[in-house]
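Subject: Sanity check before I submit

Could someone independently write out the structure tokens for this chain? I want to compare against mine line by line before I put it in a report. The sequence has 263 residues.
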Amino acid sequence: MNDMVDWIAGHALMVWASLLILAVLTGDAAWLWNRRQRNAAIAAGYEPRVLRGLTVLMLLIAMSLLFAAIAIALKAEATVWLPGFDAALAEDLRERMQPAVLRVVAAVSHLGDLGSVATATAVVLAVLLWRRQLRLATCWTVAMVGIVPINSGLKAVFQRPRPLHNHGFIVEHSWSFPSGHAFGAMVFYGMFAYVLLSVLPHRWHRLVIACAVAMVTVIGLSRIVLQVHYFSDVMAGYASGLVWLVLCMGGAEWWRLRIPAKP
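---
Independent answer below. Compare away.
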């Protein structure tokens, strides 16, 4: 495992870029599948959906199991593969990352800060209210308001200390597991994509999904490169964030389809 950790730490930026490309390609594949489902629904005379009930159920089960598996693995002794991988990767990154690189990565990471997300949340809400998109504004508000209490509650339950680092570009004082930036980025950019998919013409949907996936990926992985989170913190942040996002999007779709908007 040490050889793999050394290679990842030595090629951290290349791995980061590769995972970004993979994530965008995965998002694009999801868009293509959704487009086929949309066309089939329209041809059959049904209202197209962003998320279907079966998809919601499968994602909730899969992400809940992933989060549980990570949490259980972290309760094991530090010599077991996941805690050992976390610690070894954080140590190698601390030794290898250059200040100039960390400065750039920190700038990217700030896009997921609470202040940045809160400001953008208020702007989006104001625009939705101005356009009288009251249903979307309500769903948007519920999703965003849930970020801090849910993530903070999970941190309080697990109380995992953060990795040690001395670069000084970002200093965090809260618990480490699960990553709040990964959780918040998943919910904010995912729900923002849902809002845009609801109001923009279909020709823009592919770009919206690609941009949302890219932002979620770069913000979450930046926390590992900066050594303010372990690898498993970010994966658990993604998993728990996706659970909340799917619940919010599924609820929004149910509301849209079951209670048609007034003309």
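---
OP: Matches mine. For the report I'm noting this point. The mean pLDDT is 82.
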